[in-house]
């Protein structure tokens, strides 16, 4: 049975008690869970958020990124090791959140480019790191769901075919894949084919409009998306991921320079939209 989630990033990149009222209202709308960025250094905040969510009957998934200083595909072995350590730290924080999934493009550094196409060696380095952290994720009963991200944000995995190749190279039961409609809208040539390609590894889905605004108000071909996911027998989360400038430091870091839609419009209309599309599919 699919569940519907909402990523907190339109309001905050943090996990402090200041976000608790957001969870209260998202629960009222009907959401099954929330998604939180794993980034805060305050470990106690993760457990507090988990307790508040559990009290509401909400589940949590995590999202996580790496930077140039802990890049899993760096030629420098010490940098790759920092990537291993940082992902293990994120797994521990996800365990504090009582989360079962961490998603994101942590197969490589976000926003860091070699100014060349990805190499076989880089895929091998990434797979080596992912196998190591996969063992740590297994101990925590967490699945790592890697994200293919558009060419302007990363270069190792832009498409479902590249992502499937990396997951297959890693060959670890706790290293899976996710599908994000925003990135796919930029990088893929079709909808059904890439979803079919990734379907053996698919463990998470982000619902995100082409402009990162309210789902259903943009250019994504939603009926095809939901039909393809149903045909693939996908039974995981449908989590809305959108952004705003409410948290300026985070917005500046990910190149969000304008408002796309009001966050509560995204949350309220987005929930109804997903529920509708699932019924249609």
UniProtKB/TrEMBL annotation:
Ranges of residues in domain Xylose isomerase-like TIM barrel: 23-258
Keyword field contains Thylakoid: no
Pfam families according to UniProt: AP_endonuc_2
Keyword terms, alphabetized: Isomerase
Gene Ontology MF terms in the entry: isomerase activity
Signal sequence extent: none
Top-level taxonomic group: Bacteria
Residue stretches spanning the membrane: none
InterPro entries recorded: Sugar_Epim/Isomerase (IPR050417), Xyl_isomerase-like_sf (IPR036237), Xyl_isomerase-like_TIM-brl (IPR013022)
Family matches, as PANTHER family: 3-DEHYDRO-D-GULOSIDE 4-EPIMERASE-RELATED, ISOMERASE
This protein's name: Sugar phosphate isomerase/epimerase
